[in-house]
Amino acid sequence: MNATGATDLNVLDLAKSLIAIPSESYRSNQQIADFLAALLSNLGYTVEPIAYTEAQGKRKVSLAARAGSGQGGLGLFAHSDTVPATADGWTPFTPIIQDDKLIGRGACDMKGPLAAALVAAASFPTAQLRAPLTLVITSDEEEGYGGAYAVCAQSQLLAAGWPEAGVVIEPTRLRPVYAHKGMVRVTVTAEGVAAHTSTGRGVSANFLIAPFLAEMTHLAERFSRDKRFMNGEFNPPTNGFNMVIDDGGCPHNVTAARTVCTMTLRTMPDDHRDEALALIAASAQRHNLAFASNGFDPVYTPRDSDIVRAAVAATDAQPETASYGTEAAVYKDYTSLVVLGPGSIDQAHTHGEWIEVSELQKAVNVYRRLIRRFCL
Question: What is the DSSP letter of 225?
Fold first, then answer.
């Protein structure tokens, strides 16, 4: 591997090497970041580590790398972390090939797709790039996009100029995703008084929150039927309103001191989410409950944009929407994006996670076509 190109870099071998480095989100990803930084440096890229220490004291490292000069070009955005894996019945960090399937933790999300992007990038000598090719590989994608936020806030390389267009690499069955839903999380909290039920001195937070919960059942019905809160470009077109309740595992003979109701909405463009949140907040206020919300916006890139049209040409597949979220929500204000990668979201995060080897090879060619379009 060197700055003149790395045509001998093999997608399957590289994917297996990445899988063999455990990088579950609860760990430090320093080892895999070092591996990727060395690979990119050997390919002739300028590599910028962006490090931080997360709440549990683990060091996390994201990478921004660039080759070529000038402005614009293409960005390939991926991540190096995976969800946790247990070794019950499979070998998550010892990848195996079986029936055209690469099996291992991260094979589908994200080690295999990341390998395909790296091999595609390695196919072009850096001196051949007429516009910059930028690669961003983050930590903590599986835990709230912490690495992506750090990259946007701290990267000097990107501050000097964002790419004209970008590909957020996630499993999409090699179909271009031009829009995906966002997420709003709402917490409503009732504060009671804990006491043994024999004393009659307690105030159950569960009873305090119960009238609010009853109103939420009616609101859930409305969200599932009222087209004001829907967007027909998505499947399903609804906001996926969900609720979970936590009273801290309060014993049956004690009044609950605190009950927290957590609700989520998968937001879409033109879905009147502000009105939906106002309805929830008004109900909480009526019942003297604490209300808080946070989240990330949906992503929408026009179907006639250069990056979507280029992705359609590269894949020969029509653009579509997705109901899950990606780091495109963090990058969307900086560049025009499409989400595109091999594998299916149905295979991601599973016990026995896998991806088709043939689809990895197809992905290399797709990413090569996009690099040619924007960088050569």
Answer: H
SS3 290: strand
What residue ranges define each of the domains in the chain, with the CATH number in brackets? 11-180+298-375 (3.40.630.10), 183-296 (3.30.70.360)
Kindly report the CA angle at 313 between 311 and 319, in degrees rounded to 5? 50
Burial of 252 (0-12, 13-18, 19+ CB in 10 A): exposed
Q: Say what the pTM is.
A: 0.92
Instruction: List the alpha helices (DSSP H) in the chain.
Output: 11-19, 30-42, 111-122, 146-154, 156-159, 205-225, 273-286, 306-315, 328-331, 357-375
Query: What is the 8-class DSSP label of residue 171?
Result: -
Give the sign of the dihedral formed by CA 307, CA 311, CA 314, CA 319.
Answer: negative
Distance CA 144, CA 105 (A): 19
Answer whether 336's CB lies under 8 Å from 90's CB. no
The model's pLDDT over 66-79, given as tens digits with 9 standing for 90+, comes to 999 999 999 999 99
Mean pLDDT, residues 232-256 taken together: 98
* Cα distances (Å, whole numbers) of residue 150 to 168, 294, 299, 368: 16, 18, 19, 28
List the end-to-end C-alpha distance of the chain, in Å, as a whole number: 20
Amino acid sitting at position 335:
T
Q: Are 121 and 371 in contact (CB under 8 A)?
A: yes
